[in-house]
Automatic annotation (TrEMBL):
Protein known as: ATP-dependent Clp protease adapter protein ClpS
Gene Ontology biological process terms in this record: protein catabolic process; proteolysis
Quaternary assembly: Binds to the N-terminal domain of the chaperone ClpA.
HAMAP family reported in the protein's UniProt record: ClpS (MF_00302)
Length: 104
């Protein structure tokens, strides 16, 4: 909404308030595979998504049972960074673990 102000010189100044909308959020998921050890998945969730062991285990079991488990919801740049960190860590460890992001 524009606000009008009159200064001493009789000039009307308009100021438009910036309308900021929140950034788009993305869900980060781990995908199931038949080769990555469950304990490795739990460790990844704890390390990269800051979850306690119990929560990480619950997410890992969801990945195992349902094929996919959500690890968190983040702005796009943070979600993308987490996906890349997880994929790099898994490859270095020799595991085919997949991590993806989807718009929330």
């Amino acid at each position: 909404m524009a606000t009008k102000h009159v200064n001493d010189g009789g000039t009307v100044l308009e100021r438009q308030e910036a309308k900021l909308k929140p950034p788009a959020m993305y869900q980060v998921f781990l995908l199931n595979d038949d080769y990555t050890p469950m304990e490795f998945v739990v460790a990844v969730i704890q390390q990269y998504f800051n979850k306690d062991r119990e929560t990480a285990t619950q997410i890992m079991l969801k990945v195992h049972r349902d094929g996919k488990g959500m690890c968190g919801v983040y702005p796009k740049d943070i979600a993308s960074t987490k996906v890349e960190l997880v994929l790099t860590h898994a490859r270095k460890a020799g595991h085919p673990l997949q991590c993806v992001m989807e718009e929330a």
